[in-house]
Amino acid sequence: MTSPKQDQILDFPMQQLKLSGELKRAANAAGIKTLRQLCQHRTDQVQSWPGFNIQLVHEYVNYLEQNGLGNHVDHW
């Protein structure tokens, strides 16, 4: 279960979060607009997408963990 603040982070446009430009570009190219959308995919899947790599996956996982959302990683 997430708090209202955590739900807001999951649904906030990724382009407006404190993430690297590289991660934002890769997500945008994959049609991903929010962290909630990204969390619907396993990290091993995401890593194989064009423009993504293990460093970008680590960045997004670390961001989730720093915001108390680590339980959303590979949850599906």
Give the helix/strand layout.
Blueprint: H1 4-11, H2 21-29, H3 35-39, H4 43-48, H5 54-66
Describe the protein in words.
The protein has 76 residues and is mainly alpha-helical. Helix content is 54%, strand content 0%. The longest helix has 13 residues, at 54-66.
Approximately how much beta-strand content do the residues carry?
under 5%
Largest sheet: none
Class of secondary structure makeup: mainly alpha
Specify the number of helices. 5
CATH fold call: DNA polymerase, domain 1
Taken from the alpha-carbon principal axes, the silhouette is: globular
Give the % helix: 40-55%
| CATH class identity | Mainly Alpha
Mean pLDDT: 94
Q: How many domain units?
A: 1
Total number of beta strands: 0
Low-confidence stretches: none
Rg over C-alpha atoms, rounded to the nearest angstrom: 11 Å
- CATH H-level superfamily: 5' to 3' exonuclease, C-terminal subdomain
Distance between the termini: 14 Å
Order of helices and strands: HHHHH
